[in-house]
Amino acid sequence: MRILSFILIAIAVSGCRLTDYSEKEGITTDVINTPTSSDTDENIPVLTLSVDEIDLGTITQGELIEYDLEIMNAGEGQLVLTDVRASCGCTVSKDWPREAIPPGEKGIIKVSFNSEGKSGHSESTISIVANTRPASTAILLKADVLAPELFEDR
Fold this sequence. Notes:
Elements: H1 2-18, E1 47-49, E2 53-60, E3 64-73, E4 81-86, E5 91-95, E6 106-114, E7 120-130, E8 136-146, H2 148-153
Parallel strand pairs: 2-8
Antiparallel strand pairs: 1-3, 3-6, 4-7, 5-6, 7-8
């Protein structure tokens, strides 16, 4: 029984050692302020978008359209984006700021829309997750895609 107790204590102690990050220098979370409901508005980043929605207008089926979505940190704290996702595979947020955006500074999220196989009106949502309140900001991307047969009728 003593041997079993000793083994359990050894496992517990070594397990604590696995989660001790104090010896890893260079890893800091100083710039990340994840707001909670009890936080005041001080030092909270505020994500603002340059447009209310992205309207690509009328495009031809098969076109790949690229768009630079400008974002700004209108708050007091460092803005850190943790994820950018689209509601469908045709819209890809392929490049977004990986470094903290200081107050008053801007960044660009590169968005591309692939109209291959699409026809008619198309809408998707791009969700930006950051250390803001609320944690997610969404923007609508829309386009009217002309299929080849529709394009020939014009």
